[in-house]
Structure formats: C-alpha cells, structure tokens
C-alpha cells in the first residue's frame, strides 16, 4: 500500500511593495453610523444619525458621502430590501416601545446609553 506524502512547498507569490501592503484595498465600501443628534420637542422629537460612506467602487458617483437619517429611514430601507431582493435581510434593532412610555424616570429612547446602543446596532445592520 502506497503512503501519501503531503506537498509542503510554498506557493509562489509576487513580491509585495509598500503600496500593496499599506494602500487601500482594490475594492472597498465603508459605512459608519455616528454623531447622533436629537432634535424637536414633545411628540415631534426624534434622533438622527450621521451615515458616512467611503468607497472606490465604480458604481458610486461620489467616493465619499455623508447624510443624516433617523430610525424610520432604516425601517424603510429594510422593507425595500426585503421586498425587492431575494437575499435574507438582517433584522433591525427593536423599536423600544417600552422605552417610550411616560413616567419612566429616565429619557427613554432619548437616553444617551440607549442612543449609543441603537447607533451601534444600526451600524451592524447597515454593514451586514
């Protein structure tokens, strides 16, 4: 019975220069969610998030772009993706209905810690 010997030779690769090692990847799309701002008063109060996009993909006209969006805009995007595509769309962070109840003793959905948690969850959603 013949014994099989594994091939342990190294793959031949081209030498890497500094630009290859430390330059931007050939194709990239970076999306960051940050800088939350709460605006309005009373029932018209809501929080917006800054969405920053950087890319070198040729399909995009702008290489860098920044917009402000609120949670309901993410809901709209998710619904459109679900309706128009055949891929599984990740879930959004919850609506936090209990945090909207009056007399909670805190700022509810406008509490800094909640806004930070939601910002991180929205960034995870948009990058999936």
Automatic annotation (TrEMBL):
Cite the entry's keywords alphabetically: Lipid-binding, Protein transport, Transport
Any single GO molecular-function term of the entry would be: phosphatidylinositol-3-phosphate binding
Gene3D superfamilies xref list: Phox-like domain
Name a single GO cellular component. Answer: early endosome membrane
Q: Which Pfam families match?
A: PX
Which GO BP terms, alphabetically?
A: endocytic recycling; late endosome to Golgi transport; protein transport
Domain of life the protein comes from: Eukaryota
Task: Please report the stretch or stretches of sequence annotated as the PX domain.
Answer: 27-128
Q: Which family, according to the similarity comment? A: Belongs to the sorting nexin family.
Q: What is this protein called?
A: SNX3 protein
The organism is Atlantisia rogersi (Inaccessible Island rail)
| The encoding gene | Snx3
